[in-house]
Amino acid sequence: MTDESAPIGVFDSGMGGLTVLRALEAALPGESFIYLGDTARLPYGSKSPGTVARYALQASEILVERGIRALVVACNTASAFALDALAERHPELPVFGVVEPGASAAAEAPRGASVLVLATESTVAGGAYQKAILRLRPDLKIHARACPLLVALAEEGEHEGEFCERVLGHYLHGHTAGGSVSDPAVVVLGCTHFPVFREPLRRLLPDHTVVVDSAATTAERVADALVSSGATARHPGRLTLLATDGVRRFTRVGGYFLGRPLDAVELVDL
Ligand code: DGL
Prior knowledge:
The protein is an alpha/beta fold. It has helices at 18-27, 49-65, 76-89, 99-106, 121-126, 128-136, 148-156, 162-172, 198-204, 215-228, 247-258; strands at residues 8-12, 33-37, 70-73, 95-96, 114-119, 141-146, 186-189, 210-213, 239-243, 265-267. Helix 11 (247-258) links the parallel strand 9 (239-243) and strand 10.
């Protein structure tokens, strides 16, 4: 029997997953959440699939030990490489990733359009987004660009200004109007750290380009699953924040990702 007062566990390599948590809180008011940022081992996006899967399994154990009733993998890299292993390790829990929901958002693109996926190095190399979008929409042309510097910038709390725009411009070079590769109808933020760059990105992209991320679609899926199993909470929600390093910076910078100031962040060891 599901304990409706138990929290939903959410994890990422760092603060990026707070963008997904923000959407989850909006979709599931009254729900309790426990969030883990594995900041000691960030970035996941430059690690091999085996290492990412090992880290993701360890992160999930911390949350499971605290009695969660669903697990949201708020990291595209971990979703790409560890979702099956996580579902196998925790057969008693519903486990949700962010790649499939992000791909569904991209699949709204017009017929035959180009889609540009911005993600971590490992997510791009593994091809999870490319495959997931093409499964839904084989007519689309998919391009993918690894943007590792954006994760470091986001974790530093640098999400605006000239330097950010230069880095974003570097990654978009050749993919936007005037470039030779494509003029994407849709840009997918295929890393949960990237929604903090939505505004500067918008300034660099033509008006007709739609920018999508997986936060809202993931939250909808989680909410639908909990509602259809009759397991939504009806009590004042509580948020517990955990990080494996740098809790002071997490508290200071994390508010921008979540859209409100953060309370204390607890240090945990994996
Ligand atoms: N936020 C993570 C993602 O969505 C990865 C960032 C990183 O650790 O490289 O892929």
